[in-house]
């Protein structure tokens, strides 16, 4: 009974994933640090973006950034600038570029690249301390990057 | 106009409220047992051009954590010093010897000043040796005993016992002569941006000490105070454990405790603390 219910939804899920045009990490084009084209056609979900920014295994953005709107999640760091009004003065394309690979905007930045899969020194398998698998995934998926961008765009004055 | 300036201007334009920064090390002074003065702040050694002043990690901890180091009765690390004192006198191995058989009953007489100069070049072996390597060399070649695991409880306790004999003395590791190549290797590692997060030791401990990274108040990552009793782990932590943890946290494949890479890194990191006092066993959160 359960199985018959589950199969159609799994098929539906695969179908949407296959239909979405996803730009792979190696194919991203930057223009002055920004990425014009969304990484996937699925619209970004700001609520999921919020979760990604606070969860340690995902973006963990608040490890380095203070964000008023995320004050219910404890412990915001101060390695990077506060992001409270970043939706005001940064375009979606600029934000996408910064989150995908901040070093394309800020040379030598301490901020990690969240949509990059090669060019690392001794990459690991997440936080295990072991070597990375051959097909190292980016820290965030294309959809997760879009979710984060959607949330960052809500960070405006008033 | 570069992007940094644009950002700064736009932040100024929208009138962002000033943020309360953590503001670096505190001003507390460390005197252990009302007697042993610990230098927790001093001029950076000449080879360390990127910093003016070096600080012990103690200066970045909360008052509560700091207080545990003021008196040996409150320092949970001292229990392990007592345990190691027992091992010091215990005969082990095929040669029927203990540490005391060669170094005397009182480590204060033979071990004062030792911690301060390790890692150190060993001429006979033709290698830079950490204190842990020297302890195991004694066990294997003098006592005919099994080596301790590099970061085992027995090893860290023995290191704590040896550190205590030098508390208050300035760290003074040699970086020139035959140790120079190893030191260079360690220095290169310190500035290498490891892992998927592409972070070097310097990114956190040189560029960002004094800042919070999530709930952690970043120190300069000095090792003058090792071994350190970590309240979170409720045991003594060896410096190679700490290196391993920090590299793992960059989403990198780490090196192994006792590996040539970590020996080199230890020499370099120790040298960044030349002038701070030997402080171990210390207490950290």
TrEMBL record, chain B:
Cofactor(s) needed: heme c; heme
Binding site for substrate: 242
GO-annotated cellular components: cytochrome complex; periplasmic space
Binding site residues for heme c 1: 99, 102-103, 138
Keyword Electron transport: yes
Active site: 246 (cysteine persulfide intermediate)
Keywords from the named record: Electron transport, Heme, Iron, Metal-binding, Periplasm, Signal, Transferase, Transport
UniProt GO BP: sulfur oxidation
Signal peptide start and end residues: 1-22
Subunit structure: Heterodimer of SoxA and SoxX.
Family, per entry: Belongs to the SoxA family.
Protein name: SoxAX cytochrome complex subunit A
Lineage of producing organism: Bacteria, Pseudomonadati, Pseudomonadota, Alphaproteobacteria, Rhodobacterales
């Amino acid at each position: 009974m359960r199985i018959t219910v589950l199969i159609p939804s799994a098929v539906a899920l695969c179908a949407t994933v296959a239909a979405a045009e996803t730009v792979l990490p190696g194919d991203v084009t930057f223009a002055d640090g920004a990425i014009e084209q969304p990484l996937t056609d699925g619209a970004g979900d700001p609520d999921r973006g919020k979760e990604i920014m606070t969860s340690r295994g995902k973006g963990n953005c608040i490890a380095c950034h203070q964000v008023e709107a995320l004050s219910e999640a404890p412990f915001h760091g101060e390695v990077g600038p506060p992001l409270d009004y970043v939706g005001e003065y940064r375009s979606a394309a600029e934000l996408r570029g910064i989150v995908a690979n901040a070093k394309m905007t800020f040379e030598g930045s301490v901020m990690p690249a969240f949509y990059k899969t090669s060019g690392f020194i001794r990459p690991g398998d997440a936080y295990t301390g072991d070597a990375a698998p051959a097909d190292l995934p980016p820290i965030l998926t294309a959809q997760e990057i879009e979710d984060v961008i959607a949330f960052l765009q809500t960070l405006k004055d008033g | 106009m570069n992007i940094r300036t644009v950002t700064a201007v736009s932040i100024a334009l929208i009138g962002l409220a000033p943020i309360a920064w953590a503001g670096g090390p505190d001003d507390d002074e460390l005197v252990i047992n009302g007697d042993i003065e610990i230098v927790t702040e001093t001029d950076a050694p000449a080879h360390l051009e990127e910093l003016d002043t070096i600080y012990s990690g103690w200066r970045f901890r909360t008052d509560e954590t700091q207080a545990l180091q003021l008196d040996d009765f409150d320092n949970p690390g001292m229990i392990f010093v007592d345990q190691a004192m027992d091992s010091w006198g215990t005969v082990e191995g095929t040669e029927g010897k203990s540490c005391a058989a060669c170094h005397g009953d009182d480590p204060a007489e033979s071990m004062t000043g030792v911690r301060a100069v390790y890692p150190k070049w060993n001429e006979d072996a033709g290698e830079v040796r950490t204190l842990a390597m020297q302890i195991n060399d004694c066990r294997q070649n003098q006592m005919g005993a099994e080596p301790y695991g590099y970061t085992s409880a027995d090893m860290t306790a023995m290191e704590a016992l040896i550190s205590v004999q030098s508390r208050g003395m300035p760290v003074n590791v040699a970086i020139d002569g035959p140790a120079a190549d190893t030191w260079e290797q360690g220095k290169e590692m310190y500035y290498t941006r490891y892992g998927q997060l592409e972070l070097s030791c310097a990114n956190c401990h040189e560029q960002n000490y004094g800042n919070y990274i999530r709930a952690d108040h970043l120190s300069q990552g000095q090792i003058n105070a090792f071994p350190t009793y970590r309240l979170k782990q409720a045991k003594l932590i060896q410096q190679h454990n700490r290196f391993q943890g920090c590299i793992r946290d960059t989403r990198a494949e780490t090196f192994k405790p006792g590996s040539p890479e970590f020996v080199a890194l230890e020499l370099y990191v120790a040298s960044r603390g030349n002038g701070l006092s030997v402080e171990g066993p210390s207490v950290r959160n």
